[in-house]
Amino acid sequence: MMRALIWLTVLLAGLYAGYWYVGSRAALRGAETALAAAEARGITDPAEVGIAGFPSRFDLTVEPFRLRQPPFDWQADFLQVFALSWRPHHLIAVWPDAQRLTVAGRPMDLTVEDMRGSAVVAPTDDLALDRATVVIEAPELAAAGGQGFAARQIRLAVGAEDAARQTLRLGLEALDIVPATGSRAVADPGGALPDSIDWLRLDATLGLDAPLDRQALARPPRPESLDIRDLSLRWGALSLTASGRLGIDRDGRLTGQIDLEAARWREVLGLAVAAGLVRAELAPTYGAALTALANAAGGPDDTLRVPLIFAGGWATLGPLPLGRAPRLR
Fold first, then answer.
1. What is the band of 200 on the pLDDT scale with cuts at 50, 70, 90?
2. Torsions phi, psi of 270, nearest 5?
3. Where are the domains of the chain?
4. 20 to 30 A from 8, CA-CA: which of 26, 194, 200, 244?
5. CA 164 to CA 274: how far, in whole Å?
6. CA distances from residue 68 to 33, 45, 127, 204, 223 in whole angstroms, order as listed
7. Residues 158-161: contacts with CB within 8 Å, 24+ apart?
8. Are 95 and 116 in contact (CB under 8 A)?
9. How many CB atoms lie within 10 A of CB 200?
10. Dist. CA 100–CA 152, nearest whole Å
C-alpha cells in the first residue's frame, strides 16, 4: 500500500512538473513573440525575457523594458509579471522603484516606494483584459525647472463593460498631491492654498477600437470615445468638477464638450497654466474674460460654470479660444 502511494505521488509530481514546463514555455514564447512584434513596429527596444517560479508560479521578467507610443515613452530597468500556476489568467505585475517617462519630448523621473498591479484576462488565446488594478505608493514625478509632484497614493482600476472588452470603465484616485516648487509657483504664486491637493478623482468610460489583449503591443488599441461621469479635484477651498463626452473627428482630433464648474476659479486658471493648457502670457486676458463670464452668470464671483468645447479642430473655453484641439491619431 505504502509503495503504491509513493509511486502515485511520484507520478502526480511528474505530471505537475510537466504541466509547469509546458505552461512556462508557452508563456515565454508568447511574451517573446509579442515583444518581437512590438519591436518591429518601433514600440519597444530589444530585451531579455526569462521565466522562473517552479513549482507554484510563472514568473516572467523582461529587462530592460521600454514602451514607446508617441507622445509617450516609458522606460524601466525591468518589468515582472507573476501568475500562480493553477490560476494562469490572474496576473500580478511589479515595477521598479525608479522609472523614466517622456511626454511630448519632455523627460521626467518617476520614483515610487511600491508600484504593483493585478489583472484578470479572458481564458482565450488573445488574453483580452477583463479587469485590472494598479496601486502606486508614494510616487514622485520630477521634471526640469522644478516641475512635478509627489503624492501619498495613486489608485487606478479598469474593468471591461461589454463582451468584446472594448468598453472600459476607468476609476482613478490620487491622494495628498504635493506640487513641486516650480509647479506650485505657477499654480499658486501667492501661496494662498494648502501645501497639498486633497484629492483628484476620475470616473469615466473609455471606448477602444480593439480590446487590450496580447496583440496590443504590436497594434495598440486606439481610443474612440471618453464619457466622463466625474472628474473632480479639491485643493483647500478650491474645487473643480467636470463631466461630458469626447470623441475623435475624421482628422483624429478631439471633439465634444466637457462642462466645467470651478470654485476659486482663478487658482484653477493657474493650474491650467502650470499644466501647459493655457499660455502664461494669455493668462491675464483669460482672467479678465472669465471674470466677466462669472459675473454674467449672476453667481458668486469666485465660482465659474463654463463649457470646454472641441469642435472643428479647435478648442474653446466658453467664448475663449484655446488653440488647436489635441490630435490623437
1. very high
2. -60, -40
3. 1-111
4. 26
5. 39
6. 17, 9, 22, 25, 17
7. 158/129, 158/131, 158/132, 158/133, 159/130, 159/131, 159/132, 160/128, 160/129, 160/130, 160/131, 160/211, 161/205
8. yes
9. 18
10. 20
Residue 65 φ/ψ, nearest 5 degrees: -125, 135
Count how many residues are written for the chain.
329
CA-based angle 211:227:232, to the nearest 5?
Answer: 120
| Assigned C-alpha cell, 116 | 504593483
**CA 154 centroid distance within chain:** 10
* Amino acid code (one letter) for 275: A
**Type of residue found at 313:** G
Give the pLDDT band of residue 204 (cuts 50, 70, 90): very high
Query: Hey, what's the cell of 144?
Result: 526640469
Average pLDDT over every residue of 134-147: 93
329, three cell numbers:
491619431
Amino acid, res. 189: P
**How far apart, in whole angstroms, are the C-alpha atoms of residue 282 and residue 102?**
26
Predicted confidence at residue 120, as pLDDT, reads: 92
Q: Which three cell numbers stand for residue 247?
A: 470623441
Per residue in 96-137, pLDDT (tens digit) is 999 999 988 889 999 999 999 999 988 877 788 999 999 999
Look-up of cell digits 502606486: 136
Inter-CA distances, 45 with 33, 75, 76, 224, 314, Å: 13, 10, 11, 28, 35
Closest CA to 235 of 162, 158, 319, 151: 151
